Structure to design on (175 residues):
């Protein structure tokens, strides 16, 4: 029995009940595909280096609600306790790591990767994100706000003026 249903499944299948978002997802895929085809005809990548950004939607809250709907429809909430979700998350990180295994250093943007391998990276990153969001929910962590607070802590822990260009851990710096 598979309690964790997102293995090798595209987001479109996972969220098939979210009709509005499914349509928007398809539209986004179509636009992306059109841009990719145009770029391929021009002999270039669709996203110039240094200009990548995420879409504004969906928010983490929307992803949380979609996943909650997905698990509730299948009566899987009984299996999605924090420990199980953590193990599932680690498993998905392993699946992501497997894609990078034995490749040596990989350049930003994965320029030498096939479209199929890029798609696998996209799917495994999505699995990681889905379980991370669900785990945060089950731990009652407001993830967007928690991330902002942690980034502020990181700024204080690693002042740019002090650590610029250095990879040392904060414990290695002296005042
Ligand atoms: Mg996976």
């Amino acid at each position: 029995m598979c309690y964790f249903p997102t293995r090798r499944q595209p987001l479109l299948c996972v969220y098939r009940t979210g009709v509005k978002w499914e349509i928007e997802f398809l539209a986004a895929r179509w636009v992306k595909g059109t841009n990719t085809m145009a770029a391929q005809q021009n002999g270039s990548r669709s996203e110039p280096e240094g200009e990548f950004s995420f879409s504004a939607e969906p928010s983490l809250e929307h992803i949380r609600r979609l996943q909650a709907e997905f698990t509730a429809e299948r009566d899987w909430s009984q299996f999605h306790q924090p420990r199980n979700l953590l193990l599932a998350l680690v498993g998905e990180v392993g699946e992501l790591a497997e894609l990078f295994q034995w490749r040596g250093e990989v350049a930003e943007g994965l320029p030498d990767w096939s479209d199929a391998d890029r798609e696998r990276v996209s799917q495994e990153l999505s699995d990681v994100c889905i379980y991370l969001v669900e785990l945060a929910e089950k731990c009652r962590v407001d993830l967007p706000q928690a991330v902002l607070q942690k980034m502020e802590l990181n700024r204080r822990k690693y002042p740019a003026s002090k650590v610029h260009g250095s990879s040392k851990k904060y414990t290695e710096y002296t005042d």
User: Anything to note?
Assistant: The chain has a mean pLDDT of 81.
